[in-house]
């Protein structure tokens, strides 16, 4: 991010975006959309977050497009956060981890989004494999959607919220790592003042919600406070809707990156 700028661009081939790009909602449209984004941004944007669901909806041929995109983005020097939001009992979690975090997997990614809501400990196989492979996780802590609060802000017997407990688990995971550990939290940019939460997890904070969900880069300091220095802001539709013109995609990504720099300094 120091080299390429402070932005994560989401690769989310929504049917509505394919249509606005003049593409059919089929495998050819998916391919054209995805490779246009890859060609336009792979050399300049720091982090990419393909959303697996938008590829899986086309079955194995969609997953093949995802595989190639991940490989091309990584070959061009981008970091790939696979947004698959996996979460299951530990023994099954191990298989999800192998799919995305084993070095020789066709979908190997630099990091994977995971859901801890079967219990943080259920993620252990993914934590272990990420460590072995030099990859990372982004664990859903405080999500950008309003429905998340009923789970994440629920208060436990010890008086802490569930979301705060996930952040504490991540802080423990990253303890002692310099400059920071590889176990990040997902914390929505849409959530307003989060000073009630300790966001100092010594790890990255993936912050979706800028653009289509209404948050702006200017909101980041008020939402994240001192932890803003560890934020990886994600924009998906806000950039993608500018396509299919490659220059327009690049200009949108540059504009969001500039807005983030202005907001957080540096
Ligand atoms: O884990 C995520 O990436 C995620 C977590 C969250 O709390 N909210 C959220 O919007 N996301 C994802 O971030 C992206 C946001 O897309 P836009 O709203 O189009 O910028 C989508 O891929 C969502 O699935």
Automatic annotation (TrEMBL):
Keywords: Decarboxylase, Lyase, Pyrimidine biosynthesis. InterPro entries: Aldolase_TIM, OMPdecase_AS, OMPdecase_type-2, OMPdeCOase_dom, RibuloseP-bd_barrel. The keyword Lyase applies. It catalyses: orotidine 5'-phosphate + H(+) = UMP + CO2. The active site is at 85 (proton donor). Pfam families: OMPdecase. NCBIfam families: pyrF_sub2. This is Orotidine 5'-phosphate decarboxylase. It comes from Streptomyces showdoensis. The lineage of its organism: Bacteria, Bacillati, Actinomycetota, Actinomycetes, Kitasatosporales.
């Amino acid at each position: 991010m120091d080299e390429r700028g402070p932005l994560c661009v989401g690769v989310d081939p929504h049917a509505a975006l394919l249509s606005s790009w003049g593409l059919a909602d089929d495998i050819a449209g998916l391919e054209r959309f995805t490779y246009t984004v890859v060609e336009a941004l792979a050399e300049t944007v720091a982090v990419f977050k393909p959303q697996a669901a938008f590829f899986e909806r086309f079955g194995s041929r969609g997953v093949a497009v995802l595989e190639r995109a991940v490989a091309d983005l990584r070959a061009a020097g981008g970091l790939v956060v696979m947004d698959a939001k996996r979460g299951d009992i530990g023994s099954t979690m191990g298989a999800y981890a192998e799919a995305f975090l084993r070095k020789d997997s066709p979908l190997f990614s630099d990091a994977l989004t995971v859901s801890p809501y079967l219990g943080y400990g259920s993620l252990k196989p993914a934590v272990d494999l990420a460590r072995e492979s030099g990859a990372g996780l982004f664990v859903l802590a405080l999500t950008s959607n309003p429905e998340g609060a009923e789970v994440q802000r629920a208060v436990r017997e010890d008086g802490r919220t569930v979301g705060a407990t996930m952040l504490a688990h991540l802080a423990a995971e990253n303890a002692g790592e310099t400059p920071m550990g590889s176990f990040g939290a997902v914390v929505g940019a849409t959530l307003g003042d989060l000073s009630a939460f300790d966001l100092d997890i010594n790890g990255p904070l993936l912050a979706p919600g800028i653009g289509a969900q209404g948050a702006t880069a200017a909101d980041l300091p008020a939402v994240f406070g001192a932890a803003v220095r560890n934020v990886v802001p994600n924009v998906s539709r806000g950039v993608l809707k500018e396509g299919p013109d490659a220059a327009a995609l690049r200009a949108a990504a540059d504009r969001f990156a500039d807005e983030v720099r202005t907001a957080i300094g540096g």
